[in-house]
Amino acid sequence: MNGLALARYYYETVGRPALERQFPALMPRIAVGLAGEGSECLGFDDALSRDHDWGPAFCIWMEQEDYQAYGAEVQAAYYALPGEAAGYPARQDSNMSGERVGCLCTQDWYRRYTGMTEGPVTLEQWRRIPESFLATAVNGEVFYDPLGHFSAIRTRLQQYYPEDVRIKKIAARAATMAQAGQYNYPRCIKREDAVAAQLAMAEFIKAAISMVYLLNRAYTPFYKWMFRGLERLPKLKRTVTLIERLSKAQALEATGLIEAICLNIAAELRRQGLTKHSGNFLLDVCPDIMEHIQDEVLRKTHFMQE
Q: pTM here?
């Protein structure tokens, strides 16, 4: 049983009966699920994940007014629940994990990952939030939410970036891929600067992975799970295979793989109508991409800026 399935089982068989018994009046105003930080919220947990911050647990999200009035009492009731469930031992939270499960305030939870209690509204607000924070805010599952407020914010975030912001990020990723991979990496190799070459390679791979997510309209998760998450995306499967090969390649092969990845990305940019440029040097397509931004202020920012 993975962490998400265990969380639902724990809530339905242990948590829900206890909460309904102790807080019947609050039940219509809470949301319950498992989301946020941790591999189990992405469905990526395995046997290695179980040494810390893993085990029977769930989140109880309450509106700010209810949280201030009843949060401590609900948290005490949560702590009093049996720790073991379905044969799995009690969760062992590390000192660094913070408040990932238990009783949480909805407004504080969204502020933690977006900077705002209701999530971003303006283009500038959307731009300021790291991709991985948005991925964290919408992962996992909500098991119960009769009030619907927590899920309403979540659903709006899941609808993805405003198109202008997505296009701006695509332009920035294209610029980084060209600069780090197509231009600087081969130059570093020719100079026999191994450290600089590895740094350029890392920048290219990070930008390429983010680009695949953007072209699939999905948020890029925390770096540890960036590549793993690509397996769920429908577009650019060939590019994902090339990125994996690139991570293991020697310098001579790597240069060719970089160009093959950029060729695939350029083709997808054309398929999505973001450029008519026929070349594969991604720096050249950036001005074309930027012209598709409707917001005048955002269109005039430098394409290397997110």
A: 0.93
